[in-house]
Amino acid sequence: MKVHYETAGDGEVVVLSNSIGSNLRMWDPQVKPLTDNGFRVVRYDTRGHGRSPVPPGPYSIADLGGDVVELLDTLGVESAHFVGLSLGGMTGAWLGQHAPERIRSLALTFTSVKPGNVDMWTGRAKQVRAEGMEQIAAGSIGRWFTPDWIAAHPELAAELRQMTATTPAEGYAACCEAIAGLDLTAGLAAISAPTLVISGADDAALPPSHGQAIAEAIPGARFEVLGHAAHLGSYEQAGKFTELVLEHLKGAR
Fold first, then answer.
1. Three-state SS for 175?
2. What is the per-residue pLDDT for 124?
3. Cβ atoms within 10 A of the Cβ of 154, count?
4. d(Cα 250, Cα 253) in Å, to the nearest integer?
5. Dihedral sign, CA of 75, 35, 62, 140?
6. Closest by alpha carbon to 109, among 243, 224, 31?
7. Could you say which of 3, 32, 109, 186 would form a disulfide bridge with 52 (CB–CB 3.0 to 4.6 Å)?
């Protein structure tokens, strides 16, 4: 399926993959630093999100990974660096296992390969199909950011809350179904791409233990924990996050 995407810059391609309930705008803080350092940024809306098509669910992680492969084919890109956050990181872990020839390096951030909470995810899918996204959006900000950050950035928090509120309900629900029951643990040891794993010290949604388990299973992976960061640490600690990612990408050139 052809997803909506935007490109910026020239050089080696870095694909940025968004979290559930967001869109490619969540990567705004990273675009200029990456292009300034000689990378071509390709950010896209996961299927069911932003301006991408919303096919009826459920979706699978193979569907989401296949969309990235099709995107690379569309762009004529043989292989790319891949940075994914939350659901985007799950997509990256699938790609590292099932399309290794297309992946130059991986940054799996604020994510998990075995999220658990199956009933929560299936219940959330049912809820948004019945009630829409408003209640989910109201709760998402408290998961994405620490209270101190929300208090210091009320306008930006409101803008990001609206990003979730305007996510298509069916797309969100179908991605919930992709996460429910997901377990990519068995294939981690086969990932050969240079891998950076980042978790947030204050991430209640997917605590650092999830990231640590990924890093311990992937040969040679590096694990970092960002302090004062909840689930959307790419925004809350944009400077430190981007610095880690850039260091990783330059090392994988």
1. helix
2. 96
3. 9
4. 5
5. negative
6. 224
7. 3
What Å distances lie between residue 177 and 56, 125, 170, 202, CA to CA? Answer: 12, 7, 11, 25
**pLDDT (tens digit, 9 = 90+) per residue, 151-209?**
999 999 999 999 999 999 999 999 999 999 999 999 999 999 999 999 999 999 999 99
Closest alpha carbon to 50 in 23, 90, 85, 79: 23
Q: Decide if 233 contacts 242 (C-beta within 8 A).
A: no
| Distance in angstroms (rounded) separating the CA atoms of residues 241 and 245 | 6
Whether residue 1 contacts residue 55, with contact meaning beta carbons closer than 8 Å, is answered with yes
List the alpha helices (DSSP H) in 22-133. Answer: 28-36, 61-75, 87-98, 118-131
Sign of dihedral through CA atoms 74, 80, 83, 87?
positive
35 and 7 Cβ atoms separated by less than 8 Å: no
CB 87 within 8 A of CB 63: no
DSSP-derived letter for residue 237 is T
Whether 65 and 91 have beta carbons less than 8 Å apart is answered as yes
Give the pair of three-digit tokens for residue 225: 């924990």
